[in-house]
């Protein structure tokens, strides 16, 4: 079952803009997260001495703990960036698209 409104939406320039912007942001954020994970894995592989070094002499915490927490926090931050853009710019483009198509 194919509705003619789908063809109007897919052909609309705002839809093309929305898809292009959303895909670009998703690729950038995914690449950034992949680079952060890769950097962490490379640290584990090639600099385990640094990750295992204590933050201060006699301190129980090593540099690996804040590095791992930073990696987890970065995932939340990047997700927040996407959600902010999705709830702002992408929702605005979607509303404008629907208004144009349903007129």
Automatic annotation (TrEMBL):
A Gene Ontology term for the protein's cellular component? plasma membrane
Asked if the Swiss-Prot or TrEMBL record annotates the protein with the keyword Transport, the reply is: no
Query: Keywords assigned by UniProt?
Result: Membrane, Transmembrane, Transmembrane helix
A Pfam family that this protein carries is DUF485
Q: Indicate the transmembrane segments per the record.
A: 25-45, 65-83
Its protein name is DUF485 domain-containing protein
């Amino acid at each position: 079952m194919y509705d003619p409104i789908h063809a109007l939406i897919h052909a609309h320039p705002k839809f093309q803009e929305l898809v292009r912007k959303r895909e670009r942001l998703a690729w950038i954020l995914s690449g950034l997260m992949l680079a952060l994970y890769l950097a962490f894995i490379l640290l584990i592989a090639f600099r385990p001495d640094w990750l295992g070094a204590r933050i201060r002499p006699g301190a129980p915490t090593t540099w690996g703990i804040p590095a791992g927490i930073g990696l987890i926090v970065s995932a939340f931050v990047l997700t927040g960036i996407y959600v902010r853009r999705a709830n702002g710019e992408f929702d605005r483009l979607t509303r404008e698209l629907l208004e144009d198509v349903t007129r």
